[in-house]
UniProtKB/TrEMBL annotation:
Originating organism: Syncephalastrum racemosum
Family matches, as Pfam families: CoA_binding_2 (PF13380)
InterPro entries attached to this UniProt entry: CoA-bd, NAD(P)-bd_dom_sf
Protein name: CoA-binding protein
Start and end residues of each CoA-binding domain: 9-102
PANTHER family: COA-BINDING DOMAIN-CONTAINING PROTEIN, CYTOPLASMIC PROTEIN-RELATED
Amino acid sequence: MNPVTAYRFITSKQFAVVGASTDRSKYGNRVLRWYQGHELPVVPVNHKEAEVESLRAVGSIRDVSDPAETGLSIITPPKVTLDILKLGKELGFTRFWLQPGAEDKAVLDYAKEAELDIIAGGPCILVQGPGLLTHRSKI
């Protein structure tokens, strides 16, 4: 994991969890609750539910305010992730954390081709995030 990319991500003004789930056993819910548990501003992105973990959900990243200052945690199948990255770039998102399993070769190839600064390939925010939180106290 590139430390500069990780710093930029964790110091985002807000976060959005793409693939947020109402099922507390799924990673989309666990990641959302991680942000909540650390009192970080977070928006669940779920196209089926109006609310996740007592937060108003948005149906698409199109509905997330301030894309340039939002870190996107993506917990989706690779085919969906690819579409999210393409739309995210179009909308001006620059901070992406792909949870394990959200990427495949096509996703990584696109990210490289599009010059996206992403965290991918295995580090999970649930594992790596706590160690990065000290950087938030500096903003």
